[in-house]
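Notebook B, p. 112. Complex prediction, attempt 2.
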Amino acid sequence: MNLEKKISEAIIDEYFKILKNSLEVDAVVVGGGPSGLYAAYRLAKDGYKTVLLDRRLSLGGGIWAGGMMFNVITFTEKSKEIFDEIGLKYEKRGELYVASAVELAGVLIYNLAKSGATILNGIFAEDVVVKDNKVKGVVINWSTVQIANLMVDPLVISAKVVIDATGHPAEVVHHLAKREKEIIIAGEGPMHVEVGDVATVTNTKEMYPGLVVCGMAANAVSGAPRMGPTFGGMLLSGKKAYEIAKERIESI
Ligand code: 48F
């Protein structure tokens, strides 16, 4: 028995099955931070064929490090319900709630993994597909190709809707804005917690037909402030992105 061969074969066969099954989907969520993890989980839970990509191997984006690498996160009363829904343990501290950053990342990743979504980690979106003035998918490549600065042609995932959940850089919107001059990127404002936390939800929108922006990326393209290690707005933004994406999928 050649167990080494069997292990390698099992991994290759299974991964290629997953990859092949991901080539045409309902939704691609780019970025596995809090907003993207929540949006992808809700879409997949509803039965939509969903792929979440993250450039890094470990999902969670900015959750893990809490504030300045103190691994604690905060949220306020207005988002308590969504933290109850995902099953996070927390404590009340004055007007704030506090929870473990590691537990929040763990709960969101666990929910996503169980939802039926396909998770492609170590893969990044380097561009979008645009046809008939609509975003119709993402152009993907290995993160290692980018790190090594290699010239390697990409592959494509076709999708009815793409969600840019890439955080501060709003990478997907920037790729599109290079070609579509009507997309104006206002840039991110300086820290203002109360305004930023609400604005990230208000600014969650369909930026262009087929492209929804959420989380910190929504503020980064809209001129709204950043808000630091408070995560209620991020999950509520993920929820709004899910609702907008669902409407777009159902309209096709
Ligand atoms: O930045 P990030 O955590 O996104 P978010 O959901 O949450 C922001 C908060 O963490 C924090 C905050 C809290 O109030 O302000 O910053 O907006 O996660 C973004 C994820 O996207 C991945 C990146 O590796 C990270 O995990 N990412 C970024 N660009 C790409 C990408 C890309 N082009 N392709 C794939 N993944």
